[in-house]
Specification:
- It is an enzyme of class 2 (transferase).
- Could be a virulence factor.
- Pfam families: PLDc_2, PLDc_N.
- It is found in: Cell membrane; Secreted.
- With 473 residues, the chain is of the alpha/beta class.
- It has 3 domains: 57 residues; 199 residues, Endonuclease Chain A (Endonuclease, Chain A), CATH 3.30.870; 163 residues, 2-Layer Sandwich (Endonuclease, Chain A), CATH 3.30.870.
- Helices cover 42% and strands 19% of the residues.
- It is built from 17 helices and 17 strands.
- It has a 15-stranded mixed β-sheet with strand order 4-3-2-5-6-8-1-9-16-15-14-10-11-12-17, with helices on both faces.
- Helix 2 runs antiparallel to helix 3 and helix 12 packs across helix 17.
- The protein is globular.
Length: 473
């Protein structure tokens, strides 16, 4: 009996010690009070399992320099800034421009051309053509890179480019492109193409990294032509192909030319250096830029290695500055309190807020969590539209038909706070008009308050429970 009490005493003492240590860590590191309170409760009321969950999912172990890889300190780089930095005229977006000047350290660059490409049917031929025309370098990053019919076309094109002397680097996410087994990495290595898996490890002490994902989709060719947006690489993104087995996925990608492509290169090179310790630089990756159009643009990134959520801050500031109309299209929509409040206040002051989400996405639990957030927004006057199939994976935002914000980030806590994402601001009326028209063309089935009120109690309870676990789905 004495031995039994002795064992119980030590188990209890260890539980208290672990919980006190984790409570101190949470109080010193967590900015979100709701998350802090939740983790403290889990650790105290779930002996041993709570601390294990926190060690696996609650600690940000990623530490990288928050500043740019290149500091623009040489005479050549200073001349680059003087020549290509956009001189903002009087505009209602000037406060946003100034905010991003300070937070990103990246200038708003003029002289760019942007082409919007819908679905893999439009985007993949452009991307493959650019790879076939490459002369010096190819940088490719994708969250999902399948080795299917489309994937094989990309692997063949990359291998051919490398054979003619082009420097090729491919980075895929350690989860999105296969965790235990990655067919695309196997094929790339067999073709002797330099490739890596971001944040991937099978060692138990590194497995907590699986909660942090590189969600970026970037292709840069010769430092002059860039592609970015929401499009992964896989057969399901080609809607004209009726034979694929997966759910067909509509998406939107963007082809860029001009000085802003250098910023896109920096994003990839920073991730590559973090993953492989190889730093890429020089004329091969950063050639002297050439004006390709007249669109001012700037890349905005976010990730758990940053002190602030830059993409979320950009969206919030744009909502605050909006005067007439804000349009969103997103596959996953779970706004936190400050995001939802910004939308509600804008709607209450007379700004038309249109939010297009899929009627059903490829992640049902995410849909349930989303539905738990919609009542308050609809009550405030936001117009929520349920898009018809095929599932649309585009991530688009426009403000007053003058400004656009597009890229890889979804409107949920995972994208805005846990994933590594890349978006781009586009100060161009023609692009905004095209994207706004595209979004509004999907506004056919509006969700009303009366629709929400007839949801059964069991449905609303299910939705509320799913919302609690969203950051880690």
């Amino acid at each position: 009996m004495a031995s039994f009490f002795s064992v119980s005493f030590w188990f209890g003492a260890l539980h208290i010690a672990f919980s006190l240590g984790i409570t101190a860590h949470v109080l010193l590191t967590k900015r979100d009070t709701a998350a802090a309170t939740g983790w403290i409760g889990i650790c105290w009321f779930m002996p041993y399992m709570g601390p294990i969950l926190y060690l696996c999912l609650g600690i940000n172990r990623v530490r990288r320099r928050a500043q740019k890889l290149r500091e623009y300190t040489t005479p050549e780089e200073t001349a680059f800034l003087a020549k290509w930095t956009h001189d903002a005229q009087d505009s209602f977006m000037n406060p946003l421009i100034k905010m991003l000047d300070g937070l990103t350290g990246l200038p708003l660059l003029k002289g760019n051309q942007v082409e919007c490409l819908h679905n893999g049917d439009q985007a993949y031929p452009h991307m493959l053509e650019s790879i076939h025309q490459a002369e010096r370098s190819i940088l490719l990053c994708s969250y999902i890179f399948r080795y299917d019919k489309i994937g094989r076309q990309f692997v063949d094109a990359l291998a051919t480019a490398q054979q003619r002397g082009v420097e090729v680097r491919v980075l895929v996410d350690g989860i999105g492109s296969g965790y235990l087994y990655s067919p695309i990495i196997k094929q790339l290595r067999q073709r002797h193409i330099r490739c890596a898996r971001f944040m991937h490890s099978l060692w138990p002490w590194r497995m907590p990294f699986v909660n942090l994902r590189d969600h970026r989709k970037i292709l840069v060719v010769d430092g002059r032509v860039g592609y970015m947006g929401g499009l992964n690489i896989g057969d399901e993104n080609c809607l004209n192909n009726a034979t694929h087995r997966r759910m067909p996925v509509a998406d939107t990608h963007f082809r860029l030319e001009g000085p802003v492509v250098q910023q896109l290169s920096e994003v990839f090179i920073k991730d590559w250096a973090f993953t492989t310790r190889e730093e890429l630089d020089g004329e091969r990756y950063f050639p002297d830029p050439v004006a390709a159009g007249d669109i001012p643009a700037r890349v905005v990134t976010s990730g758990p290695d940053m002190e602030v959520e830059l993409i979320e801050y950009t969206i919030l500031q744009a909502i605050i500055l909006a005067r007439h109309h804000v349009c969103f299209m997103t596959p996953y929509f779970i706004p936190d309190d400050r995001f939802a409040t910004a939308l509600e206040l804008a709607a209450l002051r007379g700004v038309v807020i249109d939010i297009v989400v899929p009627h059903r996405s490829n992640h049902p639990i995410t849909d349930y969590a989303r539905d738990a957030c919609l009542r308050q927004l609809v009550q405030a006057g936001c117009r929520v539209w349920l898009g018809a199939p095929p599932f649309n994976h585009s991530k688009l935002m426009t403000v007053d038909t003058m400004w656009s914000f597009v890229g890889s980030a979804n409107l949920d806590r995972r994208s805005l706070r846990l994933n590594f994402e890349s978006n781009i601001t586009l100060h161009d009326e023609a692009t905004a008009a095209h994207l706004e028209g595209f979004i509004l063309a999907h506004c056919n089935d509006r969700l009303t308050l009366s629709d929400i009120e007839v949801w059964p109690l069991v449905t609303r309870l299910r939705n509320g429970v799913c919302r609690l676990f969203l950051p880690y789905l």
